[in-house]
Specification:
By secondary structure, the chain is mainly alpha-helical. The protein is built from three helices and no strands.
Length: about 50
């Protein structure tokens, strides 16, 4: 997916958050697990209001 398409999707989904993993590849959720988990948990906590 191109960055242009990524931005189009991000801007078109209300309440979405854009997470860019510096140094991550196609499986950044494995390659950069602590950063991925931090971003994911922050988003989920925000949605839950905690």
């Amino acid at each position: 997916m191109t960055m242009e398409k990524t931005m189009e999707l991000y801007e078109g989904i209300p309440g979405s958050r854009l997470y860019l993993c510096r140094g991550g590849g196609h499986v950044h959720q494995w390659e950069q697990l602590p950063a991925y988990n931090e971003a994911t948990l922050a988003f989920l906590r925000e949605q839950a209001g905690t």
